[in-house]
TrEMBL record:
Residues 525-576 form a coiled coil. Residues 382-571 form the Guanylate kinase-like domain. This is MAGUK p55 subfamily member 4. It is found in: Cytoplasm. One of its GO terms (cellular component) is cytoplasm. One of its GO terms (biological process) is intracellular protein localization. PROSITE patterns: GUANYLATE_KINASE_1, GUANYLATE_KINASE_2, L27, PDZ. The keyword Repressor does not apply.
Amino acid sequence: GLTGLLGLIPPPASHTSHSTACKPWPGLSLLLQTFQPETLIVTLSIGHSPTVALLQVYDCLQEFKEKKLVPATTHAQTLSYEVVGILRETPKSPETQELRQILQAPHFKALLSAHDTVAQKDFEPLLPPLPDNIPDSEEAMRIVCLVKNQQPLGATIKRHEMTGDILVARVIHGGLAERSGLLYAGDKLVEVNGVSVEGLDPEQVIHILAMSRGTIRFKVVPGSLMGPFCTYCQVYVRAMTEYWPQEDPTIPCMDARKISDLGTCAGLIPSNHLLKRKQREFWWSQPYQPHTHLKSIILNFSFSSSTYSVPAILCVSDKEEFVGCDQKFFIAGFRRSMRLCRRKSHLRQQHAGVCSASGCLSASGAPYEEVVRYQRRRSDKHRLIVLVGPSGVGVNELRRQLIERNPSHFQSAVPHTTRSKKSYEMDGREYHYVSKETFESLMYGHRMLEYGEYKGHLYGTSVDAVQAVLDEGKICVMDLEPQGIQIARTHELKPYVIFIKPSNISCMKQSRKNAKIITDYFVDMKFKDEDLQEMEDLAQKMETQFGQFFDHVIVNDNLQDACAQLLSAVQKAQEEPQWVPATWVSSDTES
Ligand SMILES: Nc1ncnc2c1ncn2[C@@H]1O[C@H](COP(=O)(O)OP(=O)(O)OP(=O)(O)O)[C@@H](O)[C@H]1O
């Protein structure tokens, strides 16, 4: 069409003859090759001499060079109007007649129309405007389609106590509903497969669901938009014990069962007022009484005293010499008496069965503990770093290496003792020297994180000694027997517990070839195979009994690797969000 239109330009005078009048002017093909036809067409003046037409074309091209060459309706319209104008001026000429025919042709009209449609991008369907007064619930309505094959939906429902709405009570981790990412706890069900659930009992809705095959279509109002009626909020808990649901005869919903791994955190939707009611769907948040199906993780340690005849000490000496005494800085908390006394107190506690049931569960004795993500603010004190591990695994070696790396950043707490100060010692450096009465008042006032007796003297580390390090803006690193973790777990210390685990025995035989241990009686003793075996056994028992308190585990195989891991874990504990008991953080808010 456009080419035809251009072809109608009269040829130059020399070429004008009747036979060539309607043939395209030869120069035109050059023009067409050189320029976009649509920019040319606008300026064509039919009937003018070719030179004038060319000048007009030139002018127009100059003008369009400056413009954005995006086609727009006006261009097409301009073309039509100009052509119509020309037609009016020379209505009788045969060229005009032919042009008129071309313009009327459907394909040319379609071309212009397509051009305008694309240029305006108005090809999307036009929707009627929304009315102003839509109810909020309708606006928030969501259609969710889930394809139910052989598997259950993986969600439970309940009726809201006040509104009577049918709500999604729980979305089971890993189930179909959770994987779809479309249904959430607290969502209100409005319809299931086109059937309104208003006024229905949860059992009736479950029946509809059970009868449904293939795609199930839910109409839901998201719980997040239900304002004050939505009483659900996600709560996370840490499993403080292992649980074998398949051995639990009281479990109401086998599909919902989940083994809780020690120390793992999972989201729940507890609702205290509902606990009073016999709500099947809330069985998982019922206060739990350990009973026969809960495999006891309270192990009775029965070590021979030989376990404790191989304690290791950094400073190979038969005297109570402190580590680093002739170095530029002094590292407290590595004294041999203190370490031997700690081990003795551990032994005594194990034999006395001090680790009670509550010691293995949460502080409240519940099998789970509510946790929250805690991110230490820059202005907050550092978290206490607690290292735990079986005797000889390298807890003190790692602690010493960490402190030596940056003594102005990491520090041990100075322990207390009732023994008298020696001539070369300084009060508050090796120990805080206190009377037996003072020591006991700290003990009974629960201000001692750990304490024990060695050769008739009391030794221990107080909360205040740890606080003193934290108050200086440093990171306090201490080793603790696992029984002491519970005492240290307070909102003021917010301990981050790192378990130092031995590698397997064959690896340790290699790595500990030159390692020296010291006992009450022996100096520079090498590890024997049975020492390594006992270390491994003790580590296993510690993990089973106290694993729920461990925030991080480091296998101490290669010492340098373990050291690097420790440094990174300590940094993460201080700088990255971590799960901590909810009480630590709420106490913060109160204070
Ligand atoms: N990864 C390792 N490779 C080689 N030797 C190691 C490693 N870790 C620790 N050792 C050495 O093992 C010995 C015991 O380590 P350490 O004194 O730190 O044990 P511990 O866990 O503190 O035990 P205890 O609490 O009984 O004193 C030390 O000689 C130490 O240098």
